[in-house]
Design a protein that fits this description.
By secondary structure, the chain is an alpha+beta fold. It contains 19 helices and 28 strands.
Length: about 775
């Protein structure tokens, strides 16, 4: 292993500009003649728009124009779309309701935009927005997904507010297995709604060039090429070759910046209409109302086991809340990113999962870090933990009895797991967590009046979201391959252009590490370019832990092509046969001789065209490659959480955390550990603190950081992190992906630990002090009776 190659803990190259305040985010970009946009949003969860009076607002100082939904419709600007088709059990397609970027007839959630004020300054736009008068006819709303079917119908296309009634698995085989079971564990689970809070709020800056009839959009996107495709092909603002999308430095995304939002569409439309650049930057409170939320499932789940604790079958029924409109990939999250992972790490013969997706008068719901995988893991790991307790079997032992032991393994819910060693990660985690010493620590806690509990979460996820054949067969509207281009300059420095996008993952370092190792050049001589549709070949972006497994695999192919051509150049230089040229550590040599040429020499000669006169060899050294894997990757691992609960107050403190993960090949262990830490923090946030709350009228009660509790450093312990390794056979580097693991594993580990501590399974997320205290009050009479 080289000092900067794969496996080295190289410091992130990009951090120099970030920690010194030299990053360039969308809001940092200023264009000549730039105006500022402020949106007028509905204060009602559901209402009919009778009239929008903009006359007073238009006369306010500095106002350039005020635009409404009816003007947008008159200009024939298309609706936002969901790009993943799901069919119900009866074969009917999902019921996708129209989603205009500005509402013209009805509003369907608090925050639904109805108009936009364009002014010279933000302050002027904000003042004018308050003068826009909207006459609403308030209508009844529904916010509880469990009551959506009996609530008022939101969209004409969706009777009973039902988007689809979908299922996966063999219901008859599952019913037969349950009939033969000696033990059945049943749970009702709510997977709480979460509000993403990336450190950088969303922003968009649009500019129209009348001379070329081109639009340029700078925005906070995780996938600029997909944004350009949707805005062009479906919204219809401009042909692809007349629309440039640039995603500069982006301050975190966690999935919430994958999607196509109304604000960027409106900014583009307004910029062309007004012939001036238009910028919008969300305020934090606006982000609570405008960014896609995550999770929000209501589930009943059952696990069937034989007398020895062998799992026979799993049965799940979920109602998934997709909010007021379908978002870009929302349909896939509670279906093919959820039900397909219901086997967990276990050899479960029969699984049947039903999912009913519904509309409610709430913010649209889509992918959020983990996207379906955290919800599936929570269902499976809670069931297994509770089953172990009910049957009097050690939770680790029950897991081991049911682990998959040989690979590849075909689950009953589509997925084929290709590699793993679940026993190894559990064993290592138990050693690092000192599970054998837990009872002693529990007694010490009891002496201090505290309740101590231990919780496991042995998770698996499908990552490297890509295989076009697989996702296409499941309804995805695009192929999810990835692209890379390697440009070698005459001096030997290298530019990598990747279709993935970095927004905190460290791609500028890890991609450069791969190039440094493969070409034998200093990492400082490699630059990574992404996020600009005019510069970079079409790519699918970053989400689903796909950048390394898919994006770097495309890069490997491009590097191999570069090396192959460079060998041709070296053969000419060294007057040897191409087949005799060997390349290692940045040097080309003729096999069996001392003749050699350095990387830089060969790069320079590749651009001296006259040296190849009469040969079938083009000048230059630049290659492009696309990579489309045959299967997903399957990171897996074991997280163990240890908590202390104050019996008097219900306050939970996480005292120990152990995470052992199998990510396949690790490119940069320091970056990977950081990803694990961040994922755990988000998972702990869901388990203990976070939860979006709507009142019965559809008002978001948790609409700011005063009411929506984010995890802080003091909520977390120091983490013990370990790795096991089985390489993924589905890509040339053996990478599996790491970005979502912590968020997937953590919620179940925390709740399993709390319920172990207090002796009650009646704890929902977020397990706040009040929630845990109430659960303790419910179990105390039983404890007193037992005593």
């Amino acid at each position: 292993m080289s000092a900067t190659g794969i496996g080295a803990a190289v410091r992130r190259k990009e951090d120099i500009r970030f920690v010194t305040g030299r990053g360039q985010y969308t809001d940092d970009i200023a264009r000549p003649g730039e105006t500022r946009a402020v949106f007028v949003r509905s204060p009602h969860a559901r209402a009919r728009i009778r009239q929008v009076d903009v006359s007073a607002a238009k006369n306010m100082p500095g106002v350039v124009d005020v635009l409404t939904g009816r003007q947008l419709a008159a200009d024939k600007i298309g609706n936002l779309i969901c790009g993943w088709m799901i069919h119900s059990k009866d074969g009917s397609p999902m019921k996708m309701a129209p989603h205009p970027a500005l509402a013209a007839e009805t509003v369907n959630f608090v925050g639904d935009p109805v108009a936009v004020v364009i002014a010279e300054t933000v302050a002027q736009a904000r003042d004018a927005a308050e003068r826009v008068k909207v006459d609403y006819e308030v209508l009844p709303a529904v916010v509880d997904p469990a009551k959506a079917r009996s609530g008022p119908q939101i969209h004409a296309v969706a009777p009973g507010n039902t988007i689809y009634e979908w299922a996966l698995g063999d219901s008859k085989a599952v019913d037969a297995a349950f009939a033969a079971a000696r033990h059945v564990t049943r749970l009702d689970i709510i997977n709480n709604r979460l509000i993403p809070n990336a450190i950088e709020p969303r922003a968009a800056l649009a500019e129209y060039d009348a001379g070329t009839d081109r639009l340029t959009l700078w925005n906070t996107s995780q996938n600029p090429h997909v944004a350009r495709l949707v805005i062009s092909a479906f919204v219809g603002l401009a042909p692809e070759h007349k629309l440039r999308v640039i995603a500069p430095d982006v301050g975190g995304g966690f999935g919430s910046k994958i999607f196509i939002y109304p604000e960027e569409v409106v900014c583009l439309w307004a910029a062309r209409k007004l012939r001036r650049p238009v910028k919008w930057t969300a305020e934090r409170s606006e982000s609570f109302l405008a960014d896609a939320h995550g999770r929000d499932h209501v589930t009943h789940a059952e696990l069937a086991l034989d007398a020895h604790g062998k799992i026979l079958a799993l049965r799940v029924k979920t109602i998934a809340n997709l909010g007021a409109y379908m978002s870009t990939f929302s349909s896939s999250v509670p279906t093919y990113l959820y039900a397909t992972l219901m086997s967990g790490q276990y050899d479960i013969p029969h699984i049947y999962c039903e999912v009913d997706a519904v509309y409610t008068n709430t913010v649209p719901v889509d992918a959020y870090r983990g996207a379906g995988r955290p919800e599936a893991t929570f269902v499976v790991e809670r069931l297994v933990e509770v089953a172990a307790r009910e049957m009097g079997i050690d939770p680790a032992e029950l897991r081991e009895r049911n682990f998959i032991k040989s690979f590849p393994h075909q689950t009953p819910v589509i997925m084929t797991y290709d590699a793993g060693d679940y026993h190894a990660s559990l064993k290592k985690a138990m050693e690092l967590a000192d599970v054998k010493g837990f009872n002693k620590r529990k007694r010490e806690s009891a002496r201090r009046g505290k309740l101590r509990g231990l919780g496991y979460s042995t998770y698996i996820e499908a990552c490297g979201i890509a295989p076009s054949r697989a996702v296409g067969s499941l309804g995805c509207g695009v192929g999810l391959w990835e692209s890379a281009e390697v440009r070698v300059n005459p001096t030997g420095t290298v530019e990598v252009l990747t279709g993935t996008h970095a927004h905190g993952q460290g791609h500028e370092t890890t991609f450069a590490q791969l190039v440094s190792e493969r070409l034998g050049i200093p990492i400082e001589n490699v630059s990574v370019v992404h996020g600009d549709t005019d510069k970079v070949q079409f790519g699918m972006g970053t989400y689903g832990s796909r950048s390394a497994a898919v994006g770097m695999s495309a890069l490997v192919k491009a590097i191999d092509k570069v090396i192959d051509k460079a060998k041709k150049v070296a053969a000419h230089m060294l007057e040897a046969s191409e087949g005799d040229i060997e390349f290692k550590d940045g040097k080309f040599t003729v096999a069996g001789t001392d003749k050699s040429a350095a990387w830089g020499e060969v790069a320079l000669n590749a651009y001296i065209a006259h040296k190849f006169a009469g040969q079938d060899l083009e000048p230059g050294l630049k290659e492009t490659a696309f990579y489309d894997p045959t299967n997903f990757t399957f990171p897996a691992g074991c997280h163990i959480c240890e908590v202390e609960v104050d019996a008097e107050t219900g306050k939970t403190e996480i005292v120990n955390w152990t995470a052992v993960d199998d990510f396949g090949t690790v490119v940069n262990p320091m970056i990977v550990e950081g990803q694990v830490h961040g994922g755990i923090a988000q998972g702990v946030g869901q388990a203990l603190l976070e939860g979006a709350v709507y009142d019965n009228n559809g008002q978001l009660v948790t609409g700011s950081l005063m009411d929506y509790t984010m995890p802080r450093a003091y909520d977390l312990p120091s983490f013990k992190v370990g790795l096991t390794e089985t390489k993924s056979p589905s890509n040339p580097l053996g990478i599996k992906g790491c970005g979502e693991a912590g968020a997937i594993a953590a919620p179940a580990a925390v709740i399993n630990a709390i319920t172990d501590a207090i002796g009650s399974e009646d704890v929902s997320m977020p397990a706040t002090a009040a929630t845990v205290w109430a659960a303790l009050q419910r179990v105390q009479p039983a404890r007193r009776a037992a005593a």
